C-alpha cells in the first residue's frame, strides 16, 4: 500500500479506498505462493514454515474471499478493470504452479533470471499501473518512471532474498543467480544494480524527465539498499531476519519517508 501512497502523492490525488486494491492482489498471490513454496521454506526458513503450517489456511481463506470481492467490484466498474486485477493473479498461479515441459514438471520460477524479473515487473504493474488506471490518472512519464523505480528496487531485493533460500532452492529445482553463480558474484551484482539503477534515474533528473519528488525517493531507496547489503556483509543480522524484516519492509520506510517530506 505504501507504494500506491507514493502514487497518490505523485499525482496530487487524495488517498482513498483504491489504495487497498494492490494490497489485496499481492496478499492473495503471496499467500498462495507460501503454500506452493512449503518445501523450500522448510529448508531455508523453518520458523516461517512452522508459522505457515499453522495459519496459512486462515490467510488463504481471507485472501481469496477478499480477492473475490475485489474481482466482482472491478468487473462492475468495467471489463478492463476486472482483467487488470485478474492478470497478476493469473501470472502468480503460473509462476508458482508446476507445468509439464518436455516431459518434465517445472515452475516458471524455476527458470534462471525469470523468477526475479517476473516478480519485479508484477509488483510495478500492481502497485502503480493498476491503481493509476482505477483513478484515471494520465499515463505520463512520471507514472512510467515510478513503475521503473518499483521494478528496479524489487529486482534488487528479490535477488538479495534468494541468498536466504540458497539451501532450499536447489532442493526444489529452482535456479537462481545465487545457486548458479555463487554468493560473491551475487554480492557484486547487487552493488552494481543498486548503483546503475540510481544513476539512470539521476540522469533522468539531469535531463529534465524526472521530478525532484521522485529523485528524493530514489536516493533514499538506494541508500536503504546499500544499508541492508552492508548489514549482510558485516553479518550483523541473521539472513532470514534481515530478509523478512529489513528488506521486505523497505517500502514501508519509503511510504513513511514520503509522508514526512510531504507533510513538513
UniProtKB/TrEMBL annotation:
What's a Pfam family this protein contains?
A: UbiA
Record's keyword terms, sorted: Membrane, Transferase, Transmembrane, Transmembrane helix
Name the UniProt record assigns to this protein:
Putative 4-hydroxybenzoate polyprenyltransferase-like prenyltransferase
Q: Where in the cell is it found?
A: Cell membrane
The topology of this chain with respect to the membrane is: Multi-pass membrane protein
Any one GO CC term of this protein is:
plasma membrane
Among InterPro entries, the record links this protein to:
UbiA_prenyltransferase
Which spans are transmembrane here? 15-33, 54-75, 81-101, 113-137, 143-161, 189-207, 213-233, 245-262
Q: Which organism is it from?
A: Candidatus Methanoperedens nitratireducens
One example of the protein's molecular function in GO is: transferase activity, transferring alkyl or aryl (other than methyl) groups
